[in-house]
Specification:
The chain is α/β, with parallel strands linked by helices. It contains 10 helices and 8 strands. Zinc ion binds next to loops.
């Protein structure tokens, strides 16, 4: 039975009409429970683990809700103690999923993928960078020697790339819209930019052309996957045109590479801003179900 960790029990208050789809987390957790998944409440991340990715001054400012107005605008969320707890649970869920993956082959964080968080600042709805925290926690513990971050959210994993630049233990890979946010890109170890409007064929071709070779060259001990579904046609912030079947094929490609190499896989949700939140939830559920089927086979 697949096992997921969710922070849906700790929603952060947002003003009416806010663009962030806070409801998707509880809806997805409930949907997977109905399908027979075990979904546990995500634990809060440890302070010492957050410090593996972030500067002390930034962590202190977040903790005290003391970001200045400009920093808060860049983050995209109003500060609150609830947001801090929710964000720590999002990271804790990814750390727990990564540990679970090492023991069981697949671990699922039903949040996270907050790849726009830098060492010293948050951006684009990302307070902490759960991918870097999870990677470095397991690396520092000696549980793994090399981690590959596969970031297939439609937006470039700029924070992850920036924090991990010069950290040879973490290899970063990002497939994203070339002209989409973030408009100033950071250098991942391998970036695969796509044109606006790219659909299933162009996307899957680009993935097949680049990921298997990188995977073979890196031979990771763990893959952290950012499986944002903002690649879907109709996503408000996406600009690509993938179908739900395309998302499933994308996610299956990642899972099959892991299965063939015997590499543990921990997944995170990333973005998804379809006008109908049900479409976002359905795409996440379909992708995760496909991943679980591959790794259970
Ligand atoms: Zn995104």
């Amino acid at each position: 039975m697949p096992h997921g960790f969710s922070p849906a029990h700790l929603p952060a208050p947002l003003p009416p009409g806010h663009r962030f789809p806070m409801t998707k987390y509880a809806l997805l957790a409930e949907r997977l429970r109905v399908d027979g998944w075990a979904v546990a409440p995500a634990p809060l991340a440890e302070e010492a683990d957050l410090a593996r990715a972030h500067d002390p001054a930034y962590l202190a400012a977040i903790e005290r809700c003391a970001l200045d107005a400009r920093a808060e605008r860049r983050l995209g969320f109003p500060q609150s103690p609830e947001l801090v707890r929710r964000s720590k649970a999002s990271v804790g869920g990814t750390v727990a999923a990564a540990r679970w993956a090492l023991g069981h082959g697949l671990g699922v964080s039903l949040a996270g993928g907050t790849h726009h968080a830098f060492a010293d600042r948050g951006e684009g709805f990302c307070v902490y960078n759960d991918l870097v925290v999870a990677a470095r926690t397991l690396l520092d513990e000696g549980a793994v020697g090399r981690v590959l971050v596969v970031d297939l959210d439609v937006h470039q994993g700029n924070g992850t790339a920036a924090i991990c630049a010069g950290d040879e233990r973490v290899v970063t890979y990002s497939v994203h819209g070339a002209r989409n946010y973030p408009f100033v890109k950071e250098a991942s170890d391998l970036d695969v930019p796509l044109d606006d409007g790219a659909g299933d064929r162009a996307y899957l071709d680009a993935l097949e052309r680049t990921l298997p070779a990188l995977f073979a060259a890196v031979a990771p001990d763990l893959v952290l996957y950012q499986g944002g579904v903002d690649v879907l046609d109709g996503d408000r912030f996406g600009r690509l045109t993938l179908t739900e079947g395309g998302v499933v094929a994308r996610d299956r490609t990642v899972a099959e590479l892991c299965r063939a190499a015997g590499t543990p896989l921990a997944t995170t949700l990333g973005g998804g801003y379809h006008g109908e939140v049900a479409r976002t939830v359905a795409a996440h559920a379909a992708g995760l179900t496909a991943i679980a089927a591959v790794l259970a086979a």
